[in-house]
């Protein structure tokens, strides 16, 4: 009977290990997952300034473009203008890039999640890069 008990124990261990592996390999890839963020802390901005307003405008443009359902997997936007002295320090540029094999809905959701991550991880940084599983935001 000892070989039978060893076989049952071994079979149980294989089942437990394989069920854990299957759960990891069959996770839903439709949900954006933050992989990495980078805020080099080179320059920052103060909240409630023209820069913040321009940043909100760029985030809005990026999100609305990703929601349009076009075949484009990337989009860039900018906001701001030079002041009377020619200073463009409040000008904001933004770009997203989605994987080419995902739907526009998944791209939109990923861009939206990236913007949320950018606001949480780098709230006053002027330079931010967010890598998600399905997209990148800069």
Describe the structure.
This protein has a single domain, classed as Gnk2 domain, C-X8-C-X2-C motif (Killer Toxin P4, Chain A, 2-Layer Sandwich). A hairpin with a 2-residue loop joins strand 4 and strand 5. With 138 residues, it is α+β, with helices and mostly antiparallel strands. The chain is globular. It is 43% helix and 18% strand. It has 3 helices and 5 strands. Helix 2 packs antiparallel against helix 3. The protein has a 5-stranded antiparallel beta sheet with strand order 1-4-5-3-2, with helices on one face.
Q: Which H/E pattern describes the elements?
A: HEHEEHEE
CA radius of gyration is 23 Å
Q: Judging by the overall fold, what is the CATH architecture?
A: 2-Layer Sandwich
Counting structural domains, the number is: 1
Low-confidence stretches: 19-27
The CATH homologous superfamily corresponds to Gnk2 domain, C-X8-C-X2-C motif
Structural class: alpha+beta
Give the arrangement of secondary structure elements.
Layout: H1 2-25, E1 34-38, H2 50-67, E2 74-79, E3 92-98, H3 104-121, E4 129-132, E5 135-137
Antiparallel strand pairs: 1-4, 2-3, 3-5, 4-5
